[in-house]
Design goal:
31% helix, binds 2-oxo-3-(phosphonooxy)propanoic acid, Rossmann fold, NAD binding, 457 residues, oxidoreductase, NAD(P)-bd_dom_sf, elongated, alpha/beta, 5-stranded parallel β-sheet, NAD
Length: 457
């Protein structure tokens, strides 16, 4: 699971919050006080087509279909070649952690407007290339954090009681009752690397179980309960009985736990990884387990993972797979950290809403690779108003040209922001006749800074 600290949404900084919390609640008591928003739709994408992969919740599919959009829904991930072949006719794609959206896929995605990662991590998408193509990427920064935290709690007990060994032996007919090397988790130290939504949630659960909690993070974070932030990774490693990772996959985190870090861990300690496969150097983990320096490990994520159920987890996929599979007290699971009914339902709703808000209203609030821009709704009475959504290169002079194109109309409201090389402008303009629309769009999109221009009405 990625560290959601990387993708926090500064809702309070958004220009949407024009109604105070008092007014919202006051208005909700008397429905007649509320000004109903006009329902917007993309003007040119009446036949929006969505490609939904990796068994994403049917709730999400229902949300899209309820808008009249065409949805193709598949249980498995797609390879790069398959995507290159298929993606050209779709306006949106929904994926989880397996499908890779590379520059090559983006080059083939002639109509693509938006990408939804129905999970926390977004490392499977070339975020920069997507932004430069004018495509915002949305994820679900915390909806599966409880599921992951609960899985870690179970892994602590499973490892410290050698539960899988005993269960496996009994399933093969062998009675092997023993207490040697089996421990309570009460009073032990849990070291959490990455104190985002998952790490923090886990911290609270672990303390209620009687564990002492340390955490290491690259930013200073207020500890929950009596947890304590430590200054260095080494300190965390040398003091913890269990080390658990909750960081995103970034250049800086790849192989962050390798030979040196295993040596720094206490003899007899355990490693748990439900984050990303490449964060742990697995050949080095195998050495640490074989030498009995570590007493066990629980691994849910791998550098290479099969794209569909039923596919083998073998040496052709990861060269050390058979060695790892044969080690005692190693719990291997098929990337199920966020795989609960609750998490998948919440993620489905959250990301489906974000995609719909972008396609219908142009809102990029919550996008991980894009400036976050939104506007207060056009009201139902403002029938002649339309919304201009203009993604463009972040260079001088663009707004002048766009505002010249808008100058025959009254601009009711406008907001623009930039992130790196791209900028995004939303403008609501009044009394635009249907016959003006093609010309207006041509004028706005004719600058050499234009990336994508859409009109919503
Ligand atoms: O949320 C994440 O980042 C996860 O790793 C879960 O991935 P999944 O949706 O199970 O492919």
């Amino acid at each position: 699971m990625s560290n959601p600290n990387q993708t926090t949404v500064s809702a309070s900084a958004s220009p949407v919050t024009s109604i105070s919390i008092h007014d919202r609640f006051r208005a909700s008591k008397d429905a007649s006080n509320l000004r109903h928003p006009k329902v917007l739709h993309p003007l040119e994408n009446e036949g929006l087509r969505l490609l939904i992969l990796e068994n994403i919740s049917l709730d999400a599919v229902a949300t899209f279909r309820a808008q009249g959009w065409h949805v193709d829904h598949y249980a498995k991930a797609m390879s790069e070649d398959e995507l290159v072949d298929k993606i050209g006719t779709y306006h949106a794609i929904g994926i989880r952690s397996k499908t890779k959206i590379t520059q090559r896929v983006l080059n083939a995605a002639a109509k693509l407007l938006v990408i939804g990662c129905f999970c926390i991590g977004t490392n499977q998408v070339d975020l920069k290339a997507a932004a430069l193509t004018g495509i915002p990427v949305f994820n679900s920064p915390f909806s599966n954090s409880r599921s992951v935290a609960e899985l870690v709690m179970s892994e602590l007990v499973v490892l410290s009681r050698q539960l899988f060994e005993r269960s496996f032996e009994l399933r093969t007919g062998l009675w092997n009752k023993q207490s040697k090397g089996c421990w309570e988790i009460r009073g032990k130290t849990l070291g959490i690397i990455g104190y985002g939504h998952i790490g923090a949630q886990l911290s609270v659960l672990a303390e209620s179980f009687g564990l002492r909690v340390l955490f290491y993070d690259v930013v200073n974070i207020m500890p929950l309960g009596t947890a304590r932030q430590v200054e260095t990774l080494d300190k965390l490693l040398s003091e913890s009985d269990f080390v658990t990772l909750h960081v995103p996959e970034l250049e800086d985190t790849i192989n962050m736990i390798s030979t040196e870090q295993f040596a720094a861990m206490k003899k007899g300690s355990y490693l748990i990884n439900n984050a990303r496969g490449r964060v742990v150097d697995i050949p080095a983990l195998i050495v640490a387990l074989q030498s009995k320096h570590l007493a066990g490990a629980a691994i849910d994520v791998f550098p290479a993972e099969p794209g569909a159920n039923g596919a083998p987890f073998d040496d052709a996929l990861n060269p050390w797979a058979s060695v790892l599979r044969a080690l005692p007290n190693v719990v291997l699971t098929p990337h199920i950290g966020g795989s609960t009914e609750e998490a998948q339902t919440m993620i489905g709703q959250e990301v489906a809403q974000a995609l719909s808000r972008y396609l219908d209203y142009g809102s990029t609030i919550g996008a991980v690779n894009f400036p976050e821009v939104d506007l207060r709704a056009i009201t139902a009475e403002q029938t002649g108003n339309i919304r201009v959504c203009h993604v463009h290169k972040n260079q001088p002079g663009v707004l002048k040209l766009v505002n010249e194109a808008l100058s025959p109309y009254n601009v009711e409201k406008q907001y623009s922001d930039s992130k790196g090389e791209i900028a995004y402008l939303l403008a609501d303009i009044a009394d635009v006749g249907a016959r003006d629309l093609p010309g207006l769009k041509d004028r706005i999109s004719s600058t050499d800074a234009n990336i994508i221009t859409r009109l919503l009405a």
